[in-house]
Design brief:
Layout (H helix, E strand, L loop, with lengths): L1 H32 L4 H6 L5 H10 L6 H14 L4 E2 L2 E5 H36 L4 H14 L3 H15 L14 H30 L2 H8 L4 H38 L5 H11 L2 H29 L9
Antiparallel strand pairs: 1-2
Helix pairs in contact: 1-12, 5-6, 5-8, 5-10, 6-8, 7-8, 7-10, 8-10, 10-11, 10-12, 11-12
């Protein structure tokens, strides 16, 4: 049993590692296909020839593409992920570590908001299936699915920072809890809607199962029946969807952090793209890809924990 699970995890890690490598290679090539000269973008058109030559050598642009990629892999192996050409003592890894906690805090807050609202609304909708409450929740969920984070974020700023004057404009000062809650509210609705629909569908299947009928025959009913007997079995598909959506939260955080002028991995990545800073962009993409891998692996482990069939020999 444990050997089968271990084999599944090893195969999963190999597949995810291959995906990370493919993403890194694609980003490496696409960065170099973007029109324009990165040296000119970083130094300006009136820069000295000696400075341009030094930066070209630092970015390895004077080497063939395959040697540039091997150099990037060497930076990964050394743990630096590359160095800043204007500050050789400053590494990309150190810069990412400085802002990484902000992105993790934002993603975790959004995940907790989405999971609490989505699973709670899904259970409520399943208990009132076919009623006005159910139809209302489904309609609200459909609307939430169509609201992208890059639209919700500016609308929240317009409402709370400009109209109600509830918070200062972004970038004026560190806002404390509002600096975390409002960006999380911008990226949580779509995930909450997906979790609600998945929870509702799964709960309806479980509520018609024989063991639920037996529980009703023993006199169990109402909220206790839904939470104690049905919800545990209904969470198996919800865990899978939640794990996949956790990676999507990181993608939403890239735009939202910039909208709210919040430090984080997303803001750092966009700054690197605007500046054509190859080492910084490649390092940020590597970390984001690894987060996707870890979220998928964690989903498999949690799925195996909540579903005994995943741990059996025949699973």
């Amino acid at each position: 049993m444990h050997r089968t699970l271990l084999q599944r995890l090893v195969l999963r890690l190999v597949a995810l590692g291959s995906s990370v490598f493919a993403v890194l290679l694609a980003v490496f090539i696409m960065l170099r296909l973007i029109p324009g000269d990165p040296v000119t973008a970083m130094l300006g058109e009136e820069s000295r020839t000696a400075d341009r030559a030094a930066l070209t050598h630092c970015l390895r642009l004077d080497l063939p593409l395959h040697r540039q990629f091997l150099g990037f892999l060497g930076d990964i192996g050394s743990g630096t992920l590359g160095r800043y050409c204007d500050a050789p003592d400053q590494t990309v890894a150190h810069e990412i570590l400085q802002v990484f906690p902000y992105t993790v805090a934002l993603a975790c807050t959004a995940f907790l908001l989405a999971a609490t609202v989505g699973i709670g609304a899904g259970v409520w909708a399943a208990r009132r299936a076919g009623s006005g409450v159910d139809l209302t929740l489904l309609s609200v969920g459909m609307i939430a699915l169509s609201l992208p984070a890059f639209w919700v974020g500016p609308m929240l700023l317009l409402l709370f920072a400009q109209t109600l004057r509830f918070t200062p404009p972004p970038g004026d000062a560190f806002l404390g809890w509002t600096d975390l809650i409002f960006p999380a509210l911008a990226i949580a609705p779509a995930m909450a809607a997906r979790l609600m629909r998945t929870t509702r569908s799964s709960m309806l299947d479980v509520l018609s199962a024989p063991f639920i009928t037996a529980a009703r025959a023993r006199g169990v009913s109402g909220l206790r029946l839904s939470l104690k007997h049905a919800l545990g079995a209904a969470l198996v598909p919800v865990v899978s969807v939640a794990g996949l959506q956790l990676g999507g939260l990181l993608a939403g955080a890239i735009v939202v952090e910039k909208i709210f002028s919040r430090p984080g991995l997303g803001s750092l990545l966009l700054d690197g793209l605007f500046a054509r800073n190859y080492p910084l962009v490649q390092g940020c993409v590597l970390v984001i890809a690894l987060l996707f891998v870890l979220s998928n692996l964690l989903t498999d482990l949690v799925h195996a924990a909540v579903d005994p069939r995943m741990r059996s020999e025949g699973a």
